Amino acid sequence: AIDIGRDLGRVLANARTFEREHRLVEELQELADYKTRLVATVSHELRTPLTSVVGFAELLRAAPELSDRSRTAVDAIQRGAVRLTRVVEDLLVLHRATDADIGEVLPLDLAPIVADAVELSAGPAAQRGITLTADLPEGGATVLGVAHELEHLPTNLIGNAVKYTPDHGTVTVSLEVLAGEVVLTCTDSGIGISAADQERVFEEFFRSADPEAAARYGTGLGLAIVRRVVERHGGRIELESDLGRGSTFRVSLPAG
Ligand code: ADP
Fold first, then answer.
1. Which of 164, 210, 241 has the most ligand 1 atoms within 8 A of CB, as the residue to mutate?
2. Which residue ranges does the record assign to the Histidine kinase domain (predicted)?
3. Parallel, antiparallel, or unpaired for β 170-178 and 106-109?
4. CA 220 to centroid of ligand 1, rounded, Å
5. Residue 177 in 3-state DSSP?
6. Can you tell me the ipTM of this complex?
7. Are strands 236-242 and 246-254 parallel, antiparallel or unpaired?
8. CA-proximal residue: ligand 1, atom 4 (nearest)
9. Which atom of ligand 1 is nearest to the CA of 208?
10. Ligand 1 atom 20, closest CA
């Protein structure tokens, strides 16, 4: 039976709940926008003075009259400023990759981008006796995308693979075109990631508490950048890892 009073009461209560939830969503959105603007502004403002600090510290180090004590201090200043620069750069990259609009996408061959990233990690890998090999397709691997975003995929994945692999280990990179997809795989014989951490490594600022991982320097932003860029390019990322044995990250992007 219809009870107008009761039903009207229910409708009104629902409407009020809906209004409250709607307001809450709006407030959360405003807060998220504020956070984004704050991070972007702070990072941007820090960049210029940091460039001066790094530059002048370098200049000071070259001064012949510097005492050992001063030299140690200048080295510490420079190392600190370089680290800070890395955090700021990563924050800016993450911020840019968060903009709703990806901008103009172009057909791009990922092979030379991956080759550059391998080259970048070749020095650090060789220094620690890590065998770094890459298998790249001759015919290229074209995707539709933005070059300055896509370059973070191989750079961050290969950089991590080398960083989280003990001396004399191996890192293998491959790029393939498979069934309409371009697949970038990065496998390492490193420290691996526990099942619990695997769920969280793509979060902003997440760093594993595992002592082996925590002993290495990082911002916790590298994989967050990778995930954002992959999502913006309509791709997906998979992770397989065994603690103490190594990890495989696989990025699949629609072929362009
Ligand atoms: P970080 O700057 O700390 O390396 P990332 O976002 O790149 O930040 O990675 C997040 C965390 O995931 C790292 O702190 C580390 O614990 C783990 N991780 C990432 N890549 C690897 C890897 N190849 N092997 C083992 N652990 C990894």
1. 164
2. 41-256
3. unpaired
4. 7
5. strand
6. 0.99
7. antiparallel
8. 218
9. 16
10. 160
Structure confidence at residue 85 (pLDDT): 93
Q: How far is the CA of 171 from the centre of ligand 1 (A)?
A: 15
Write down how long the chain is: 256
DSSP 3-state percent helix, strand, coil across the chain (nearest 5): 55, 20, 25
pLDDT tens-place string over residues 74-130: 999 999 999 999 999 999 899 888 876 888 899 999 999 999 999 999 999 999 999
- Convert the pLDDT of each residue in 14-34 to its tens digit: 999 999 999 999 999 999 888
For ligand 1, is residue 208 a contact (CB within 6 Å)? yes
Range list of H helices, 63-194: 68-96, 110-127, 147-150, 152-163
SS3 state of residue 169: coil
When the pLDDT of each residue in the chain is averaged and rounded to a whole number, the result is: 93
50 Cα to the center of ligand 1, angstroms: 25
* Planar angle of CA 153, 156, 157, nearest 5 degrees: 80
| 147 CA → ligand 1 middle, Å | 23
Question: What is d(CA 202, CA 171) in angstroms, rounded to the nearest whole number?
Answer: 20
Residue 220 Cβ inside 6 Å of ligand 1? The answer reads yes
In tens, the pLDDT along 53-64 reads 999 999 998 888
Pairwise CA distance, residues 151 & 121, whole Å: 13
Among 94, 171, 198, 207, residue to substitute to test ligand 1 (most atoms within 8 Å of Cβ): 207
> How far is ligand 1, taken at its centre, from the CA of residue 156, in Å?
9
Decide if 213 contacts 207 (C-beta within 8 A). yes
Please tell me the pTM assigned to this model: 0.86
